[in-house]
């Protein structure tokens, strides 16, 4: 049974919690202290025994509570006997409680540094043991509040990948002011967004005064990062107005996302270039580093399909151009009248690609051996890659898409020159197979030279005394030549028939005479049915005209023999 107290004649139940009690607890009072003050305020004054009975606590505890309230200044005692306790006027009491809380907070702040220093001596963070906090935020209003808080808390850097639409909303949600204030106190602010028209440019320009803003195609995932400590990841969910965000203070997660954001930001186009492009109608210059395989494929297809008149591709086709989708794109370009020119060092895999595209695309055999892959559209834009994907290399891919005029023009001139100097890619099976094997020999010799520190001269031509440029497969300086300036040159030939092979040997002799002083080594790949090589007509002709020739039926063996000749002469 509850005890009923009848005061003035209004009944009051002792154990019923008054709403004011809960409110006073927020001011720093404990449960029974708040009940005691509220009861005194209702009664005007009361003796300790009455309070003890009403609060259902013993008298000793009641005196202790009243003493604490007196020390807080919100309860006073009467001068009469027996002593009664009086509640101080509520306005004064509440202000006293607030002042006390402020004093306590100031005291705590004063001890903050020393306490933190003591903790750092032994505290071991363990995200695995504790678990990083992740929260799901729903709706634009809640997400923008989180962005505002991140901006207010930031001390070093804020990175944002967002949409122009979101930037416009932030301008009216309070987030804009918070980000601007962060920049004003020295926080570096980076914003990456898609600026597609002048209206978007006007919205973004509001942020350009305090943030570094760059353009790139809009991402489905947007993020706000603070000091590599907190991350807010936003993804559109369902309707256009409904969004869901993931917030975390996991430093490892935030740091990983910061690496992504930094890479994306550096690959973006500066706002000034975009502004000029939008106002003049000319494309903005860009230099973009691509690391993701899917992104590389997407950019490659975009570049290929953008070609209007000319497309150069070199120097590795497999496996990038082996997929049906890419082959169809190349055929489509050729059918539209685009001159598709492919330079390739032949291999059995690439020969298959050549066969599939025969009659629609121009192919030439490249003597330029490299693991890079380059595509240039209309001499205006290119995609450059180290082609690690094609070589099975463990090195990271380096992929660059750019329309920087100087860089594209430089690479276009190089590829165009190599194209003019390269042999046409013929599809007679025997000739094609010979070309594949000869390129394999040349590549193997270059690899052995590099392994043994033998210098390879960049380029494969020597200007003869006649003024004619003569092409060789490999050129290296000779350290043994008298007076210096001597060179070792290598030409690879495939035996076909005595007459044709003899003609090519005489062409080699002419090159030798015109390019002296050079030391010419000819590597002859023998036919499988060829016999008596050392005493055959080709060998006799070579000796007769003073040509040094090494022969083998196996391309790997031929490469070894040629390398030993170079090593002996170097």
From TrEMBL:
Residues 288-390 form the Transcription regulator TrmB C-terminal domain. InterPro entries: TrmB-like (IPR051797), Tscrpt_reg_TrmB_C (IPR021586), Tscrpt_reg_TrmB_N (IPR002831), WH-like_DNA-bd_sf (IPR036388), WH_DNA-bd_sf (IPR036390). Residues 24-91 form the Transcription regulator TrmB N-terminal domain. Pfam families: Regulator_TrmB, TrmB. Belongs to the transcriptional regulator TrmB family. This is Putative transcriptional regulator. It comes from Candidatus Nitrososphaera evergladensis SR1.
């Amino acid at each position: 049974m509850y005890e009923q107290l009848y005061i003035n004649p209004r009944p009051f139940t002792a154990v019923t919690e008054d709403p004011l009690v809960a409110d006073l607890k927020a001011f720093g009072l404990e449960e029974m202290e708040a009940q005691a003050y509220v009861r005194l305020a209702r009664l005007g004054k009361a003796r300790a025994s009455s309070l003890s009975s009403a609060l259902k606590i013993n008298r000793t505890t009641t005196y202790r509570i009243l003493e604490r309230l007196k020390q807080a200044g919100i309860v006073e005692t009467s001068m009469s006997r027996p002593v009664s306790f009086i509640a101080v006027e509520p306005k004064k009491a509440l202000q006293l409680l607030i002042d006390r809380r402020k004093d306590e907070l100031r005291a705590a702040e004063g001890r903050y540094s020393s306490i933190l220093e003591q903790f750092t001596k032994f505290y071991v963070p363990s995200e695995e043991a504790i678990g990083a906090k992740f929260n799901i935020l729903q709706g634009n209003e809640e997400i923008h509040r989180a962005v505002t808080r991140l901006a207010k808390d930031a001390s070093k850097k804020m990175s944002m990948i967002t949409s122009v639409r979101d930037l416009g909303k932030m301008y009216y949600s309070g987030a804009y002011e918070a980000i601007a204030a962060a920049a004003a106190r020295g926080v570096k602010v980076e914003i990456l967004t898609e600026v597609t028209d002048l209206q978007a440019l006007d919205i973004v320009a509001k942020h350009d005064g305090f943030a570094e803003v760059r353009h790139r195609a809009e991402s489905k995932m947007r993020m706000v990062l603070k000091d590599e400590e907190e991350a807010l990841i936003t993804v559109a969910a369902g309707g256009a107005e409904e969004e869901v965000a993931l917030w975390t203070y996991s430093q490892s997660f935030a740091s990983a996302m910061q690496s992504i954001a930094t890479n994306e930001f550096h690959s973006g186009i500066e706002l000034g270039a975009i502004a000029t492009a939008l106002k003049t109608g000319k494309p903005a210059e860009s230099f973009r580093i691509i690391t993701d395989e899917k992104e590389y494929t997407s950019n490659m297809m975009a570049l290929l399909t953008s070609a209007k008149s000319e497309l150069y591709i070199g120097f590795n086709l497999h496996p990038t151009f082996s997929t049906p989708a890419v082959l169809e794109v190349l055929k489509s370009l050729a059918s539209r009248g685009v001159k598709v020119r492919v330079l390739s060092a032949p291999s059995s895999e690439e020969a298959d690609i050549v066969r599939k595209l025969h009659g629609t695309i121009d192919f030439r055999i490249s003597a330029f051996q490299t693991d890079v892959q380059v595509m240039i559209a209309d001499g205006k834009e290119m995609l450059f890659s180290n082609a690690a994907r094609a070589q099975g290399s463990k090195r990271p891919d380096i992929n660059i898409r750019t329309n920087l005029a100087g860089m594209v023009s430089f690479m276009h001139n190089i590829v165009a020159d190599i194209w003019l100097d390269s042999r046409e890619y013929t599809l007679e099976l025997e000739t094609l197979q010979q070309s594949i094997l000869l390129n394999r020999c040349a590549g193997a010799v270059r690899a052995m030279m590099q392994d043994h520190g033998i210098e390879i001269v960049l380029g494969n031509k020597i200007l003869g005394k006649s003024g004619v440029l003569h092409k060789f497969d490999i050129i290296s300086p000779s350290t043994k030549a008298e007076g210096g300036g001597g060179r070792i040159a290598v030409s690879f030939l495939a035996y076909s028939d005595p007459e044709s092979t003899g003609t090519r040997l005489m062409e080699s002799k002419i090159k030798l005479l015109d390019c002296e002083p050079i030391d010419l080594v000819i590597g002859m790949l023998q036919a499988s049915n060829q016999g008596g090589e050392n005493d055959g007509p080709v060998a006799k002709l070579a000796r007769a005209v003073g040509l040094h020739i090494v022969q083998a039926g196996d391309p790997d063996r031929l490469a070894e023999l040629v390398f030993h000749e170079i090593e002996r002469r170097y």
